[in-house]
Amino acid sequence: MYNSYNIEQYNKGNNNGHLPKAKNIPMNKILSESEKYLDKSKEYHIICQSGVRSLRTCKALKKQGFNIVNVSGGIAHYRGDLEK
């Protein structure tokens, strides 16, 4: 699971938290350095606050040949516990 918040959102608490064990890689970084973070033989789930940024990220990564799933609705619709 990857969270596509930018660094400020992730570190300064401009959100409601993040999923436990989710790795934070900002959208611009994961798109510009995708081979550094992702393996085309694995499936990844991408999430953001509302699902909009993660959807854009997923579409771009799919075009690059990655197996990507957008977490629709984002963290705003997640009902489990979040880490701050």
Automatic annotation (TrEMBL):
Domain (Rhodanese): residue spans on this chain: 17-84
InterPro entries noted in UniProt: GlpE_sulfurtransferase, Rhodanese-like_dom
Protein name, UniProt field: Rhodanese-like domain-containing protein
Organism: Clostridium thailandense
